[in-house]
Structure formats: structure tokens, C-alpha cells
Amino acid sequence: MTHRPAADEYAPYYEKYVSLVPGTDILSILEKQIETIQKYAAAVSAEREKYRYAEGKWSIREVFGHMIDGEWVFGYRALCISRGETAPLPSFDENGYVDHSNYANRELAELCAELVAVRRVNLMLLRTFDGQNWERRGTASGKTVSARALAFLMAGHILHHLSGLHNNYGILPRE
After folding, report:
1. SS3 call for 85
2. Is residue 93 part of a domain?
3. What is the DSSP string of 86-150?
4. How many domains does the chain have?
5. Which residues lie below 8 Å from residue 92, measured CB to CB, with a gap of 6+?
């Protein structure tokens, strides 16, 4: 795959994620993010894992959990759409998912390992795509989206939340 998704391949809401992704080699970008995710998790002390920067905000553990949920959802959507699914795919209520999870009670190291594992599975899937798989479009959350755009959403979603971990939680990734 050699180009970025066009603006009509995803809902305007997702531009905030797509615009964060540098370049066009999405598979390499997704692969490199694994190490970055691990560095962010390694920078959090056990005492800070439950930290919330404000009332009603997710804890660091819950942010990682939300990234897991997003990775699963975007990967599933990419699978369905790449295979020509015509049925609309459901919406993703990120707050409801976190509320009904047990992320707050799981150690960050475990959450990080799960996120990395899901990313690796998604990479295995995406590496099987040919031109037609990347180009296919379907409907998710009532909006048109391409399989290519979903790969960029995976990357941009992680970048968005890692930036939030840095800016709102003061996490500086370990080198």
C-alpha cells in the first residue's frame, strides 16, 4: 500500500487520527508503534497506574485498556470490510466499553502485553491484504470507511492517546 486514505474513505470525525499519522508506509508505522507503546508503559510506576488527572477521567490503566478496545474494534472492522461485508458494523461506545471492563484492576504490564499482542494480530491480518482488500469500503458507526483508512485509524488512535498520556498524565516514554 503506497498512499494515504482520501478524505471520503472515513468520517470527518476521524481526521484527528489520520492527520497524526506520518507518511504512507502504514505497516511499518504500526510495527514501530509496538516499541513506543512498550516504552510508555515502562515509564509508569506501579503507584501511578491508577492515576487520573481529573475527576471522571480514565486512569492510566483505563487509557491502555481503551487502546486495546480500539485496536480490537478497528481490526475487526478492517477484517470485515476487507472481506466485502455489506452489513453495517456497530458503533463503538468507548466509555461504555471501559465502564464494563476490568481494566482499572489489571496491572499495566498485563494491559501493555495485551495491546501489543492485539496489534501483532492486526498486523498479521493487514499484511495479507492486496490492493482490492485495502480499497474496499463498508459502513461502521453509520459512516463509510475503507480498510485502508482503518489501518491509519489504528495508528492515529494510538498516537492520539500516547500524546494524551504525555500531556495529561506527564508520562515521558523510556528510551
Report:
1. coil
2. yes
3. -SPBPP--HHHHHHTS-GGGS-HHHHHHHHHHHHHHHHHHHTT--HHHHH-EEEETTEEEEHHHH
4. 1
5. 69, 70, 73, 141
For residue 20, is it within any domain? Answer: yes
Cα(67)–Cα(161) distance, rounded to whole angstroms? 8
- Please tell me the predicted confidence (pLDDT) of residue 174: 76
| Confidence at 53, pLDDT banded by 50, 70, 90 | very high
What confidence tens digit (pLDDT) does each residue in 92-145 have? 999 999 999 999 999 999 999 999 999 999 999 999 999 999 999 999 999 999
Is residue 1, in this structure, part of any structural domain at all?
Answer: no
Assess contact for 82 and 134: CB atoms under 8 A: yes
Q: Is the pLDDT of residue 2 over 90?
A: no
Mean per-residue pLDDT, 151-165:
98
Give the angle 126-163-60 at the CA atoms, nearest 5°: 95
Domain extent for 99: 7-169
Q: Is residue 174 part of a domain?
A: no
Q: What share of the chain is helix, strand, coil (3-state, %, to 5)?
A: 60, 5, 35
pTM, rounded to two decimals: 0.97
